[in-house]
Fold this sequence. Notes:
The chain is α/β, with parallel strands linked by helices and 545 residues long. It has 18 helices and 22 strands. The strands form four sheets. It has a seven-stranded parallel β-sheet with strand order 8-7-6-9-10-11-12, with helices on both faces. It has a six-stranded mixed β-sheet with strand order 14-13-15-16-17-18, covered by helices on one side. It starts with a strand and ends with a strand.
Amino acid sequence: MPNPTVLVAEKLGEAGLALLREFSNVDCSYNLSQEELCAKISLCDALIVRSGTKVTREVFEAARSRLKVVGRAGVGIDNVDLQAATEHGCLVVNAPTANTIAAAEHGIALLTSMARNVAQADASMKAGKWQRNKYVGVSLVGKTLAVMGFGKVGSEVARRAKGLGMHVVAHDPYAPADRARAIGVELVSFDEAMSTSDFISLHMPLTPTTSKIFNDDTFGKMKKGVRIINVARGGVIDEDALVRALDNGTVAQAALDVFTKEPPAADSKLVQHPNVTVTPHLGASTMEAQEGVAIEIAEAVVGALKGELAATAVNAPMVPAEVLSELAPYVILAEKLGRLAVQLVAGGSGIKGVKIVYTSARDPDDLDTRILRAMVTKGIIEPISSVFVNLVNADYTAKQRGLRISEERIFHDGSAEIPVDSIQLHLSNVESKFASAISDSGDIRVEGRVKDGIPHLTLVGSFAVDVSLEGNLILCRQVDQPGMIGRVGNILSEQNVNISFMSVGRTAPKKQAIMAIGVDEEPEKETLKKIGDIPAIEEFVFLKL
């Protein structure tokens, strides 16, 4: 196979370029127009950009499916059309950690220089003036700083502001309160942050929700004389509204490193305003950060081109096609088992521990279970939350919810051509709404296998069953006696509920049995009640798959 081609469309540190050249052919073509980029991209396997290049849907379409990865040398990815990237099967990776400290330091630099009028006083002296009385500043000690966006950069700014003696509050709908408390920061509502703060530092991404979130209405909620710092994204501020707020005294000063359009117009009222300190998007511009970002993005792009799982992926993960093809039915099985298991948990029980047991004839090095673990996590979390889970965020999402997932592999003396013989889930320390799902060890236990390419449920608790995991499922524990299948079948048919399959597993003749019934439609509550009222049925549960 020829070496892949990587197009570097904006300046990248030499250390990063050296890493790329070890693995690929590198084309450094800077300042390309959209037309020039679209013309070159069909010859490239990877593209690396900073914030100045727009990677639009037209770019992905022009790539003709050859482009495998886009690397953003930095944090923000608002210049990349993620939806188009995903639709075209292109992975997008960024470099979220290398410039964190540089951006935080620049935020603090703007904060302190604004408070003491450093830029204005410097310009005044260079113009031959000595105006001590004009540039009296304000102290930071005891003042309240609101950090809007408590991610990597925001939290580092908060740490440094605490060291300056400031009282720091933060607003971020996704930040865990314990992480904020650990550094002495109080999480507050958006409106409270606006109305109580002397300084406001912006560290939020640019999304449809945050676009121009700082507008006339928002400025109207602020304490008069507030000071604003922005080293995040220019688009989060309505710049015309900020000029009005500066003119009427609502905002005393602003210090800005980013702008809606970069570079801004030379005659920009905002840039030329006497109470505004500006820098040309220097947040990540330290020698150390530039080299760090270059290395981080080069490693991410090379790893993605090799088919490795990318820790910094921001859309769909890249998994080798042959692995996805082989594991496809097991991926479905893993998610279905997760969805089934979580529905067996009684309402008041919080899931904390999940063990996944794989039975396989393969050597552990020949079976990558990360995608299976991710799909189990997806099946467990998505039915009880609004979070979308994929391979990229599965482990993080589980950790955020206190869900401990462990894996165990049991060697099975069989054919190594079959990647997985069975997948078994154990949910520990929970109560079940279907007691028969509890195994002898006290865990909720379900097991599945793939048969002829179709996922099947093969074990519930200690009861062996064999039903396809399609549609919906009714599980009934009953006294094993003749006629039970017919009675349940009649109740469902009377309500025009179609049965797709049925299986019965029992401990011993005339003892207890579990009947598993696949149905195409969700039965009405009255229909399920009639099934539960059959004297021989001891418990039942309806499960959506």
